[in-house]
């Protein structure tokens, strides 16, 4: 269930980013800007996925320790980075790749500890 939270969270971020890219460049702190954001379908879909993500996370937390689950949720960063490269065509350099590898390694270590 937590793994699905990481994937859902990553797709939520991707939708919100896509929605943000489609917004007018002249956004400010006014009613027109708030309406532009609130009526953007990608932004709405992204935050809806966040809502689903939070419900699943609450259900997962009922059956496991937060100190174990929360590091697994860090895998969302991995999925967001990969989706950013393949869907948004963003660049991946060695520093980002190394950071992603460290996150995966850290989650693997924690997962291994919990099975011992």
How would you characterize the overall build of this protein?
The structure is a single chain. This protein has 116 residues and is mainly alpha-helical. The protein has one domain. The protein is 79% helix and 0% strand. The protein is built from six helices and no strands. The protein starts with a helix and ends with a helix. 13% of the residues are buried. The mean pLDDT is 90.
Q: What distance lies between the first and last C-alpha atoms, to the nearest angstrom?
A: 21 Å
Give the percentage of residues in beta strands: under 5%
Number of strands: 0
Outline the biggest β-sheet.
none
Structural class: mainly alpha
- Tally of DSSP helical segments: 6
Low-confidence stretches: none
Mean pLDDT: 90
The SSE string, one letter per element, is: HHHHHH
Morphology call: flat
- Please give the radius of gyration in angstroms: 17 Å
Number of domains: 1
What level of helicity do the residues show? over 70%
Structural topology:
Layout: H1 2-22, H2 31-38, H3 41-61, H4 66-73, H5 75-86, H6 94-115
Helix pairs in contact: 1-3, 1-5, 5-6
Keywords:
116 residues
Question: What would a concise description of this structure say?
Answer:
The chain is mainly α and 116 residues long. Helices cover 79% and strands 0% of the residues. It has one domain (2-115).
């Amino acid at each position: 269930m937590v793994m699905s939270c990481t994937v859902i969270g990553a797709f939520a971020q991707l939708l919100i980013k896509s929605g943000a890219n489609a917004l007018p460049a002249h956004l400010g702190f006014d009613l027109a800007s708030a309406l532009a954001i609130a009526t953007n379908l990608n932004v709405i879909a992204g935050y809806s996925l966040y809502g689903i993500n939070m419900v699943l996370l609450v259900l997962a937390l009922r059956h496991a320790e937060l100190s174990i689950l929360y590091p697994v949720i860090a895998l969302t960063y991995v999925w967001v980075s990969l989706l950013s490269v393949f869907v948004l065509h963003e660049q991946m350099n060695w520093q980002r790749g190394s950071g992603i590898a460290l996150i995966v390694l850290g989650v693997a270590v924690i997962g291994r500890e919990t099975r011992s």
